[in-house]
Amino acid sequence: QVHLVESGGGLVQAGGSLRLSCAASGSGFSINAMGWYRQGPGKQRELVARITSDGRINYADSVKGRFTISRDNAKNTVYLQMNSLKPEDTAVYYCHAELIVDPYLASAWGQGTQVTVSS
Fold this sequence. Notes:
seven-stranded mixed beta sheet
């Protein structure tokens, strides 16, 4: 069983920064990729950023140049550095892990952390 624990959300003024962290714990799996999704008020959940175990990264167009995803494979932890935050970044941010539970593929979600950007 995999457990994802997120931290780092909060309230920040527009133009400010926040750093999210997500640590995966458990046994019997390996992680192919980790990423962050978000769901704003009245919106669908969307991919923010994703990083694979070999370091390939993709970002949503709306966050390119402002957000940076990184990963510590040894700690099964993924980070999201969010700079130049805008009110439209306000959302619940969810950590996601793409797992290999040999021979199957699986996924896991964190509980979500609120990010609120005030104008």
